[in-house]
Amino acid sequence: MTFRTVGFLVLVSLCFSAKLPNSFQKCNRKQPDLKDCLLKAAQDGLSQLAQPVLKDLMPSINPIEIPEATIKEGQGAVEFQQSFKDCKIYGFHLVKLDAFDWNFEKKTLYMGGFYPEFKIHCHYDFVGKILVVPIEGSGQSRITMENVTSYMNLGYEETKKKGKTYVKFVSSEATLEPGLISFNFDNLFDGDKLLGDNVNKLLNENWKEVFEDVKGGYVDLIRQVFTSIVNSLFSKVSLEELLD
Fold first, then answer.
1. Exposed, middle or buried by CB within 10 Å (0-12, 13-18, 19+), for 214?
2. Which residue of 44, 74, 148, 221 has the fewest CB atoms within a 10 Å radius of its CB?
């Protein structure tokens, strides 16, 4: 089965060059422990990108704001399209990286690790069936993914601007494996608490089956979010600024 995420846009600022703060660790391509240096620099850098003091470099990554996202219906448990607006995703900066492999010759970057928690807060609007049970509503939603392992494999192109080299990521693949997911949709069935509580309970008791049916859509969502983050950064900061 295949799924697609559509109607997706991340608010990023891409229009000017900038210098990294001195607090960002810099590595030398020729140092023997380059791989370890890059891993440590990336880990520390992601933590710093969650701080509002870097707003001139790029928007904070905690939360990440998404105007609109759509997860297509599955072919089993999830018989409806999930439409979300005004989303905020929390937790990207908490990743514990265990991979950050930069291949300068092949122009690829492989990275990922363990995320204690993703929180996805949105306004939802959908109607259909979940595990053959009718579901309908519009309101606030909270989806929490815990103990997540996720990896990204990105391909990029290089461009020259004023004698400096900039990177644009043009291809990406991702994996997403949560240890637990909890769902909470407010105002189901026009606020009928009994029906709403029962459907939320059904979702949470069967989260694995629900997630697997639309997993491709959520993988695409995370993939596009992360690609937008790195492109937002690399559009402003040259390789010469990042590496000696």
1. buried
2. 44
pLDDT in tens, 37-88: 999 999 998 888 887 766 666 778 889 889 999 998 888 888 888 999 999 9
Could you give all domains of the chain from N- to C-terminal order, each with its CATH number?
5-242 (3.15.10.30)
Q: Give the pLDDT of residue 53.
A: 60
Backbone φ and ψ of 182, nearest 5°: -120, 140
For residue 233, is pLDDT > 90?
no
pLDDT digits 0-9 by tens, 81-105: 899 999 999 998 899 999 999 999 9
Indicate the pTM of the whole model. Answer: 0.86
